[in-house]
Specification:
Number of strands: 3
Number of helices: 2
Radius of gyration: 13 Å
Order of helices and strands: HHEEE
Number of domains: 1
Largest sheet: 3 strands, antiparallel
Structural class: alpha+beta
């Protein structure tokens, strides 16, 4: 049985960051649960929020760095 690491979220995430890491995440116990595109309504700053294993990671698009 193949572990579900969140392939749909992985595919979107790898497009955004430009990295392929499927072999490292598959079987690691890490589950990519949700991916959000966020905007701070006060500052106008846009960023992404990745939910994984009940934790959240915020990051900017590599194009904005």
């Amino acid at each position: 049985m193949t572990e579900d690491y969140g392939e749909e979220v992985y595919n979107l995430l790898s497009k955004i960051v430009g990295l392929k890491f499927k072999s490292q995440i598959n079987g690691s116990g890490i589950r990519l649960e949700k991916l959000f595109e966020m905007k701070n309504l006060v500052t106008g700053e846009e960023f992404f929020c990745l939910k994984t294993n009940k934790r959240a990671i915020e990051f900017n698009s590599p194009k904005e760095c």
